[in-house]
Amino acid sequence: MSRLWEKGLPLDERVLRFTAGEDHVLDARLVSYDVRASIAHAEMLAAQKLLSDEDCAAIRDGLTELEQSFNAGDWQITLENEDVHTALETRLTQKIGDAGGRLHLGRSRNDQVLTALRLYLRDAATDLSTRVSGLRQSTVAIADRQGDVVLPGYTHMQHAMPSTVALWCGGFDEAFADAMAGLKAAGRRIDKNPLGSAAGYGTPGLPLAREHTTRALEFATTQSPVTAAQLSRGKAESGLIFEITLLLQDVGRLAADLLLFYTQEFAFITLAANTTTGSSIMPQKRNPDVLELLRSSSATAQACLDESLMITAKLPSGYQRDLQRLKAPLFRAIDLAVDSVDIMAYVLDGIRFVPENIHLDEGIFATAEAYQLVADEGMPFRDAYRRIARRYAKKN
Ligand code: ARG
Question: I need a labelling partner for 362 at 20 to 30 A (CA). Which of 11, 82, 172, 339 fits?
Fold first, then answer.
């Protein structure tokens, strides 16, 4: 019997294929998290005298070995299994016999998947945050190398006020610091333990100790009442994808600036040769494809956010299979964010500003001149503004 719920009735192959969807592929990244949650669950059962210590030890060792052999590439989750939860329990029972069949007491795949996803999300948010910190280092390194280089500050894409490379970098560095704070804030919805809510209505008559797994899995709180657990699925996901979308918008705006700076007309920067691509027809070309793709990353992230929000939007309470489809946009957004942040840091390390090519429009100092009049003559700012404006009116 391949599936946990099989009762001897045949399942149409097409129904299996449609309902399991991509799970057997996507769930690969949940294996170690499902193992960790399952061990915590078994230890809680043992502490509650619902499982013998010997069975608990066999489960712990069996799952640990399965995790290792999975990571070594010795087995995969198959379509027949449906998902990671079934694959692990089936293999565990083949390995250790009856004890494997005792593990599922007091839980359901509905709270299992929530738990595994939250453990995964916690690591993913921390990992992404570390990578954003690396991106900040690359941003600050530009300022360290060439911070004094003067840049035009633009509004409406017109020279507005004088700026510098340091000031330009500083803005993005602060935006990325905000992104790190946002990723941390996404932890609020991630940090609640759904394990023990089972199918969504608890385990009547069974003396579980949910606080036990909350502590073991290092969650901040136990999610309760049990009916809150399934209502929350998708929200931690959407919260994290939202933060990713904002982060990738800043990455994209940085890319948009650099694309402008790299045009022949601007020529404010050079890019490292190994970060540009070529053309199949024009021999002279060195194209900034990486930056163009980075500019588009937030579009994909936002589509993932939309997909995630739309899946949960009109569901009634309780577990619904629709929720399974949250995984694809979640993983897609996280993978894209990781790749985008890392490659942006790499491209930034190869950027050099070319001061000789950067010229400031004379009018860029107009505001400073008006301020000078205020300081020197005590003139109201509006009068100083008009006097300077008259001078530039002739020139424009
Ligand atoms: N793959 C499923 C999901 O992600 C796991 C839970 C399945 N539960 C069920 N009752 N069919 O939602």
Answer: 172
pLDDT reading at 1 higher than 90: no
CA distance 39 to 107: 12
Reply yes or no on whether the pLDDT at 5 is more than 90. Answer: no
Distance 112 CA to ligand 1 centre (A): 9
Per CATH, 13-105 and 116-357 having the same topology is answered: no
Average pLDDT estimate for 246-264: 98
Mean pLDDT for the chain? Answer: 96
Give the start-to-end residue ranges of the domains of the chain.
13-105, 116-357, 362-395
Question: Ligand 1: which atom is nearest the Cα of residue 109?
Answer: 6
The catalytically annotated residue of 24, 32, 129, 156 is 156
In this prediction, residue 90 carries a pLDDT of 97
User: Ligand 1 pocket, 107 CB below 6 A?
Assistant: no
DSSP string, 245-268: HHHHHHHHHHHHHHHHHHSTTT--
Look at residue 353 in the predicted model and tell me its pLDDT. 98
Domain formed by 116-357, architecture: Up-down Bundle (1.20)
Query: Rounded CA gap, 195 and 111, in Å?
Result: 5
Q: Is the CB of 83 under 6 A from ligand 1?
A: yes
CATH 3.40.50.970 matches 13-105:
no
Q: Find, among 288, 270, 192, 273, the residue nearest to 233 by Cα.
A: 192
Structure tokens at 271: 């890019």
**Ligand 1 in reach of 237 Cβ (< 6 A):** no
Q: What is the pLDDT of residue 393?
A: 84
